[in-house]
Amino acid sequence: MALTTFGAIMGFAAEISGKAEEIYRVLTQKANDAALREVLRGLSEEEGKNHDLMLKARRENVTEMILEPVTGLHQEDYEIDPKAADAADDTGLLRAAMMLEERGKRFFKDASSKVPLPEVSRIFRKAAQKKEANLAKLQGLGLSQTLGSSG
Amino acid sequence: MKQLKNYINGEWVDSGAKEYGDIWCPATGEKIGEVPFSTAADIDKAVQAAKEAYWEWRCTPPLTRARYFFKLKNLFEDAFEDISRTLVTEEGKTLDESRGEVRRMIENVEHATGVTTMMTGYNLEDIAHGIDCTAERQPIGVFGVIAPFNFPAMVPWWFLPYAVVCGNTYIVKPSEQVPMTQTRIFEAIDECGFPEGVINMVHGARDAVNGLLYHPDIKGISFVGQSATARYVYKACGETGKRVQSLGGAKNFVFVMPDAELDRSMPSLITSFYGCAGERCLSGSVLVPVGNVYRDLKEKFVAAARALKVGNGLQEGIQMGPLVSKKHKEKVLGYIEKGIKEGAKLILDGRNIKVDGYPDGFYIGPTIFDEVDPNMSIAKEEIFGPVVSIVRTGNLEESLKLLENSEYGNATCLYTTNGKTAREFKYRAVASMMGINLGIAAPMSFFPFGGSKGSFFGDIKGHGREVFQFFTDTKVVIQRWT
């Protein structure tokens, strides 16, 4: 489905953050490695905050004067696969986390150029930067050496 | 079925109405509530409560009065989504449009809290030898607003926060077509804990309006609606010695110069004509390609209009909702018929649009007439729907003439990349709200909102700096102590 309005983009941003929060919560419970568990717990909390931030940004920045149609953004390109929560071992958990962060990074990066509001664009850019940092953190856990690239 | 109550003297009370109106969900065509058509006696109860509350409120320090609005702002933020969804449900606009409206409502609350700066007077020593003069702004008494259907959350708040923060007391009469939004807003007011009687709400229609207009204890009225009613309100307030700001209808022309960046302008042009399904006094109504931009503009505009997603505004992603009522839909359909009869060429027909799942909703799709003569009804009269008339002109001079000949003077827009053209247009065009490379010229809370000619009756417009003058009397004190 095309994300053609400001509200649709912000709603989707909140939705994927909320879904990711939930998935990370499940993954945290499954993790055996203590360091991985801590990272996953942190990501879950971050996604929860992100969810609230997106709703706040939608509420505070909606500008009635320039509610113009948006083109070129499709939610199916960024959907989160709920099966990510099915991962069983630590390597699988890590792979799922990297996939989530990669998707999120791509969405926030793409969406930042579609919203004509600098405040919201900045929030998206910062979210994408955080995801970039999270990916580096996940890769640094060592477990990922066997993973290769994720998409 | 939910029956709404009035809010008088800090309490939810039943109206003495014998007659009730129906409230509809325009997206589904279902009845969702009933609104009392309150009587002049109901209005009188609210006026007595407001009058009773006035003196104590007037003596409350302005900063203390502002603190109520700081608290109210936070309550509005908490209720933001709920108010927005209520608005979509009864008015039909999209969620984004509703959220945008509620945001603008809150911005008026924010602007009003600057009362300690905005309400100050001025003074000068020695206006004559040993004599000093001060001009002090004082509140006046009970004010009221009669609100329209198209912005049920925002419009009363173009006036209310300024009136009340200046020390006046207030009565809101929401549109009987969309009374639930303001009712939800008053739940936040109730929670905020204003002193009883400071802010009141009475639902109703004609009797309530006349009850306000002719009540001797009401000092001023703010009105927004159709021009015929705006004129009536202005006249009635003149007869009864009230202050008045009466905002009427519009017929807005949007000019596109040959040098305009069409691709970049298209989203904004579409928002101008089809935002809020054309039910706004700032909507573009007549699209004017100037010179040789006609063919290219028409092609791109029709394609973009055709691509709009029309549906139930509660669904995220819908770009245009239904019209507010079956009656209004019929009125707009009547204009489309009139356009055809008068000889305009219907190049996009929204009359038979089908919206999946909502066969009874009050929908009209994007509609475009080409080859419209400026003397046709569809080029002159306010349609208030998603109907665009294309009227061609050869140059800027002819374009300005179109504006001069219009009965209305609310808003106009120009698309150009030429600064000289923009300056010329800004300088000469007869309309009070103007967009340059922008399709909705909506002044924010800190600038005045209102038109000219048949679009506005009065002198001080909605919000902005000047509205503090509307709600205060300037008392001049001349003193000699030497």
Key phrases:
heterodimer, A: 151 residues, mainly alpha, Ferritin, 4 helices, disordered C terminus, B: 482 residues, alpha/beta, Aldehyde Dehydrogenase, Chain A, domain 1, Aldehyde Dehydrogenase, Chain A, domain 2, 2 domains, 7-stranded mixed β-sheet, 6-stranded mixed β-sheet, 16 helices, 22% strand, globular
In short, what is this structure?
Chain A has helices spanning 6-30, 34-61, 90-112, 118-139.
Structure description:
Helices cover 65% and strands 0% of the residues of chain A. Chain A is built from four helices and no strands. Chain A has helices at residues 6-30, 34-61, 90-112, 118-139. In chain A, α2 runs antiparallel to α4. Chain A is elongated. Mean pLDDT of chain A is 90; it is low at 147-151. Chain B has helices spanning 40-59, 62-78, 80-91, 95-112, 115-118, 160-165, 179-192, 206-213, 227-240, 262-274, 294-306, 326-341, 377-380, 396-405, 419-428, 467-470, and strands at 6-8, 11-13, 20-25, 30-36, 122-128, 131-138, 142-146, 169-173, 199-201, 218-224, 243-247, 252-256, 284-289, 345-348, 367-370, 387-390, 408-409, 411-415, 433-436, 452-453, 456-458, 473-480. The longest helix of chain B has 20 residues, at 40-59. The N and C termini of chain B lie far apart (71 Å). The model of chain B has no long low-confidence stretch (mean pLDDT 97). Chain A binds chain B through residues 1-8, 11, 58-60, 62-70, and chain B through 77, 80-81, 94-97, 99-101, 103-104, 267-268, 270-271, 275, 304, 307-309, 316-319, 438, 440, 442.
